[in-house]
TrEMBL record:
The keyword rRNA-binding does not apply. The keyword Zinc does not apply. Residues 49-334 form the Major facilitator superfamily (MFS) profile domain. This is Major facilitator superfamily (MFS) profile domain-containing protein. InterPro entries: MFS_dom, MFS_sugar_transport-like, MFS_trans_sf, MFS_Trehalose_Transporter, Sugar/inositol_transpt, Sugar_transporter_CS. GO terms for molecular function: transmembrane transporter activity. One of its GO terms (cellular component) is membrane. Belongs to the major facilitator superfamily. Sugar transporter (TC 2.A.1.1) family. It is a multi-pass membrane protein. Signal peptide: none annotated. It is found in: Membrane. Keywords: Membrane, Sugar transport, Transmembrane, Transmembrane helix, Transport.
Length: 334
């Protein structure tokens, strides 16, 4: 019949669009469009969740950089001796050590989000205790509380961000933890030169409060939910992070396989690390961490204003230079 139509000069009954075949460029454009649509749905939730998480990193950075610009003001206003202020500066490390020891267990038992919530329940009162302190005891208690919270945050924040992020974005998103820590440190160093130590402590509580409130609006880590056997919540959290229209079946299967493999291969205990075959790795790993701490980096950071003053160098200029170097270093690594 088509032949007769052609012979009579009439159009064929077959639509021309059915004969058109997609070109490679068309397929590539469609693929890019679908990927962009998917990434946009992921980005809105991921950016919010990551931002709320790294507010804790910023809080930690502020606490690390606090003692140097606040030193002269605190010693003058409260009449602290050098020894008493040294206790105030160093007690953050003691609290951080305690928090770091228990951080892994707490994060596994109560979840990543609740661990960050617990950390801010330490950090926020700690900042306020310092801001309204009347003597050295309030300063030390506040600093210790911040250390406890910081010890929890330095573990759970990068873990949470890594667990909610797709593989192709994981490296860039987890680097935000170190970046915001350096930004918090630089903030304290720069702003602390022009405001009082009480105001600086109050400003340090803002990211704590922001994370404290924001934690109620972000999902729990899907990997932790899957590890705890909460399947419905696991899929709902993953779907929320990836977008309503995204297919999360492949990612969910990968997470389940990884957790099953981990649980199958984690039947040992901490004493297994002392076996002869692990001796070299343990010595190198722990040795590098010890050398880093024995390098005196914390002492320089906590009391740099005194170091610059003793060297007859401008405290403001030196602190600002350290802040810029810290941020530039993290930007380069990212």
């Amino acid at each position: 019949m088509e032949r007769e139509c052609i012979e009579e000069g009439l159009p064929t009954t077959r639509p021309l669009l059915l004969d058109a075949q997609p070109t490679p460029n068309t397929i590539h454009e469609i693929s890019n469009f679908n990927r962009a649509a998917r990434d946009s749905s992921i980005a809105s939730v991921l950016f919010l969740s990551t931002f709320i998480a790294v507010c804790g990193s910023f809080c930690y950075g502020c606490s690390v950089g606090y003692s140097s610009p606040a030193e002269s003001g605190i010693m003058q206003d409260l009449g602290l001796s050098l020894a008493a202020y040294s206790v105030f500066g160093s007690i953050l490390t003691i609290g951080g050590m305690i928090g770091a020891i228990i951080s892994g267990k707490i994060a596994d038992v109560v979840g990543r989000r609740r661990t960050m919530l617990l950390a801010e329940l330490f950090c926020t009162p700690g900042c306020l205790a310092i801001a309204f302190a009347k003597d050295a005891w309030w300063l030390d208690i506040g600093r210790l509380l911040i250390g406890l919270g910081a010890g929890l945050l330095t573990y759970v924040v990068p873990v949470y961000v890594a667990e909610i992020t797709p593989k192709n974005l994981r490296g860039r998103f987890t680097s935000a933890h170190q970046m915001l820590t350096s930004c918090g440190f630089a903030f304290s160093y720069c702003i602390g030169n022009i405001i009082s130590w009480r105001t600086l402590a109050l400003l340090g509580s803002i990211p704590c409060l922001l994370q404290l409130l924001g934690l109620f609006f972000i999902p729990e880590s899907p990997r932790w939910l899957a590890k705890r056997g909460r399947e419905k919540e696991f899929e709902a959290s993953l779907q929320h992070l990836w977008g309503k229209n995204a297919d999360v079946s492949v990612e969910a299967m990968d997470i389940r396989d990884i957790i099953e493999s981990f649980q199958h291969n984690s039947e040992g205990n901490a004493l297994d690390l002392f076996q002869r075959r692990y001796r070299y790795s343990i010595i190198v790993g722990v040795g590098l961490m010890l050398l880093q701490q024995f390098g005196g980096n914390s002492g320089v950071v906590y009391y740099s204003s005194t170091i610059f003053a003793e060297a007859d160098f401008s405290t403001i200029l030196g602190s600002t230079a350290l802040a810029i170097i810290s941020v530039c270093d993290r930007v380069y690594l990212v």
